[in-house]
Amino acid sequence: MFNANCPICGSQINFSTLPEENELLNCGNCNNRLVTKSVIGNEIILAEAPNIEEDWGE
Ligand SMILES: [Zn+2]
User: Fold this and answer.
1) Which of 12, 33, 52, 56 is most exposed, with minimal Cβ within 10 Å?
2) pTM for the complete prediction?
């Protein structure tokens, strides 16, 4: 089990497997969209995902 802290609300987010960089996820607590900014060893750094409109641009 891996975990990281939400950069917005600070709650802990658990990962059953180590995510890749630039994976999108939603915080289960504040429901904000997050992205895995970097993964260094077993440490996962999360960041707020940029606001994306409905289409992802091609
Ligand atoms: Zn959060």
Assistant:
1) 56
2) 0.81
